[in-house]
Design goal:
It is a single chain. With 131 residues, this protein is mainly α. The chain contains three helices and no strands. It has a domain of 74 residues. 63% of the residues lie in helices and 0% in strands. The longest helix is centred in the N-terminal third of the chain and has 33 residues. The N and C termini lie far apart (59 Å).
Amino acid sequence: MHTGAVTLIALFSAAAVLTVAAARPRWRRRLPKVIGLAAGGVLAAFLVGRGAAEFFIVHYGDPASYRNAWGGPSLAGVFAVHSGPAVAILLGAGGYLIRRHRARRGPSGRVASGSGAARDVRPLARTGGHR
């Protein structure tokens, strides 16, 4: 199959799934967030990949190879424009993961109460009202 045909099939499949999901009330509320997170994830992956690839694509000894690139004519400008967004995305993702990890921990370093890790989640009706 050609790349164009595969792309069209993927787009039509995604449109069908989104149409079915939008018909359900539960997904109708979640759909904008899911679409936004998916689009942001694809964009972030592209920018990080592009930022990493720039270090291997540029010919350091030949200024003519990056003179007309975005951020040129200086090599520092080219790296700032192409790799700067990747650094910002990675720092933001690392900060988010650190905050998320610390939020799950209590002051003692153990899993905080209410996080679901150490409590019994069986309904009271099955246990006769006692845990």
